[in-house]
Amino acid sequence: MNPIRIGYGYDVHRLAQGETLWLGGVLIQHDKGTVAHSDGDVLIHALCDAMLGAVNMRDIGYHFPDTSNDYKAIDSKILLERVQKLVAEKGYVLGNADITVAAQKPKLKDHIPTMAAKLREVMSIADEDAISIKATTTEQLGFEGREEGISAHAVVLLMKK
Asked: InterPro entries recorded for this chain (predicted)?
């Protein structure tokens, strides 16, 4: 087995009035939130997909299908814990993750330290540099720019235990 594995993840959810917005395990106050079977945390979902992809274990929809009531409104931090366990069973640990959230609004820069700390807490990671989170607008282009949805991209490096 390779001593390192790289994975990429992407997730998107529609935004709507009256829904909550969870990102990186943190509740973000905004007039819109994600429409989803789970809590709709695109950041965590992209991270999970990147980790699963790195060890060739498909995606979170395969492991936690939206057709199952077991995952209805589930906290995505629970899914992340389970994915981390699946990755560990394959003999790997997270080296680092680089995540970008694309959203016109809300502005996320002030929430990034809290989100990164929450992910490190959930994953029991001491290294403050292991989780990088960035936010970008799309200059009012596309579904993110029109505030119809939000997306996240994640790249991870997994290392052999």
From this structure: MECDP_synthase, MECDP_synthase_CS, MECDP_synthase_sf
